[in-house]
Design a protein that fits this description.
Length: 256
């Protein structure tokens, strides 16, 4: 395995997980940049890197620079970088690779997983979606991804955007439903723990059968009386609309 010298722009969720895992696998993190030097220092200390808060101080005699900032800040950061090499990649699902085309060597290093700075995560099976502007650069990014995961995909920018959209449905929307469910239970002083086994089983079951076949509940059974009882319990128009809309969507998919 080739070890790379890497610098990371950003000190948030992704930057933290990647930097720690790269270091464990023997790569060297040279610099960590954040607008806020304290954020840079917190991450840099964990991996013995140098914290910086000025992009002009970014060293370029390294192998790879990873941009791990919010999607909307990528262009702003790119506009402040006045060099053409080394290889530079961002980690966003929804930003085209061409956003980096002012550099000689560029690509994308998108991990399709949900990362929170303070939640442990084994990167072993995380799908890394790789794209690059040349075969040489693609190989470098694939080698880097292979050093921390066994699950590498080559996706172009359009495919990556589709995958990102699907992930929003699968993860963000599901998680929002968990949060809504927690609020409903809280009002009746029922612990959220009561739902944890069914949430886990929902995710486990679809490892064996397709999600469409795994669907249960009143909507797929067209159990109208139960659905009416539920609607009567909901305390806002917003929740009623959400319940009806999602139930309708379940029925539409069943009838396709
Ligand atoms: N978290 C995930 O689950 C996940 C999964 C896959 C891909 N990604 C992608 O990874 C990237 C980072 O996401 P994240 O979850 O790590 O975000 P995050 O935890 O919110 O961290 C965002 C980072 O961006 C920096 N930043 C924000 N605006 C900036 C600006 N105008 N100029 C310079 N720096 C700026 C912040 O700097 P300060 O420290 O100065 O505030 C912070 O270091 C995004 O492109 C996201 O789409 C995230």
């Amino acid at each position: 395995m080739q070890n790379f010298n890497i610098s990371i722009i950003g000190a948030g969720n992704i930057a933290t997980h990647l930097a720690i895992n790269f270091t464990k696998k023997g790569h060297l993190i040279e610099q960590v940049y954040s607008r806020n030097i304290n954020n840079a220092k917190i991450l840099a200390k964990k991996i013995k890197a140098n914290p910086i808060n000025n992009l002009a101080n970014l060293k370029t005699n390294i192998d790879i620079i990873l941009i791990c900032v919010s999607d909307s800040a990528i262009i702003e950061v790119v506009n402040q970088l006045n060099f053409r090499s080394p290889l530079i990649a961002h980690t966003a699902g929804s930003v085209p690779m061409q956003a980096l085309n002012k550099f000689d060597s560029f690509g994308v290093f998108y991990p399709l997983q949900t990362f929170s700075k303070n939640a442990k995560l084994n990167l072993n099976k995380v799908p890394f979606c790789i794209e690059a502007n040349s075969e040489v650069n693609k190989k470098k990014l694939i080698d880097l991804a292979n050093s921390i995961s066994n699950n590498i995909f080559e996706l172009n920018s359009e495919e990556r955007l589709q995958a990102h959209l699907a992930a929003v449905f699968a993860n963000n929307f599901s998680n929002h439903m968990f949060a809504m469910a927690e609020q409903m239970l809280k009002k009746h002083k029922i612990p959220f723990d009561i739902l944890k086994p069914i949430i886990l089983e929902t995710a486990t079951k679809i490892q064996q059968i397709p999600p469409q076949l795994a669907q249960t509940g009143p909507a797929v059974r067209n159990d109208i009386k139960t659905m009416e009882k539920h609607l009567a319990l909901l305390t806002s128009q917003h929740l009623e609309n959400l319940y009806s809309f999602v139930s309708q969507s379940i029925q539409n998919l069943k009838n396709q």
